Amino acid sequence: MMHELGKIHEAVAYIRSLYTGKIDAAVILGSGLGSFSEEIVVELSIPYSDIPHFPVSTVEGHGGHLLIGKLSDKAVLVMSGRFHFYEGYGPTEVVFPIRVLHLLGIQHLFVSNAAGGVNPDFKVGDLMVIKDHISLSIVNPLLGKNLDELGPRFPDMSEPYFKPFIQQAFAIAEKEGYAIKQGVYFGVTGPTFETRAEYKMIHILGADAVGMSTVQEVIAAVHCGMKVFAMSVITDLGIREEENIITHQEVLDAANAAAPKLSAIFKQLILAT
Ligand code: HPA
């Protein structure tokens, strides 16, 4: 059986056979947030299924393409569609693309997601910059033999989200004329949305939002030394006392509505890298 690092190198070699230029940043688009791709002058679109060893995305609302193109003078890679643990991918598969991005030489990673708000001050449609996360109820993607070529056995996680990006995001939002929030993202496996008791627990444990992606990806990115920025669109609220049935459609609709604001922030952060 092929070593994990060998698989990553094969995927990188395939992408490099199609695109040789320097890539300044990578973007992972969450559920309903695909419209960021429209900002990019696309030079190359690679279906995940063409890339050796790449998992294939299954969930509704996810594209399953790797796009490379230009945002003004910056070369940007966009992952339109990501891999979730709840789809049945192992944690090593979920983070496979992140390691490919690293070995493509990409140092800046921008991640978006749809998340449930548990902070009582949040409203549907709010944008939350992730300033920290709680990973203890997901499966850590670094379990098992360490890939020493990528990073250390015991990576520091005191600042997974690059502080200057957070500060710049607030400055951009202010200039654009809208308010954004910041908070702690609590990672869960899904696919069930949380029970009322679980939302309450998540809030008591110190989180502001909860979601089924991002944390494994960020751990793998920090492990290999990438600078990460992540932002959630609050698509539903886990704190209402009244009737509160959450549907995937409601999540997609709220994410679509907030996508232009999120795109503006990602775009300007990338232009400043
Ligand atoms: N919980 C978990 N994941 C989510 C939610 C939620 O309420 N909303 C969007 N993704």
Which terms summarize this structure?
273 residues; alpha/beta; Rossmann fold; 5-stranded mixed beta barrel; binds hypoxanthine
Could you give a short description of this structure?
This protein is α/β, with parallel strands linked by helices and 273 residues long. It contains 7 helices and 9 strands.
Give the helix tally: 7
- Assess the beta-strand content as a share of residues: 15-25%
Mean pLDDT equals 92
Span between N and C termini? 39 Å
How many E-type strands? 9
The kinds of small molecule bound in this structure are:
hypoxanthine
- State the domain count: 1
Largest sheet report = 5 strands, mixed, barrel
Order the strands across the largest sheet as they lie in space. Answer: 5-8-7-6-9
Shape annotation: globular
Approximately how much helix is present in the residues?
Answer: 25-40%
Structural class: alpha/beta
CATH class: Alpha Beta
For this structure, the CATH topology is: Rossmann fold
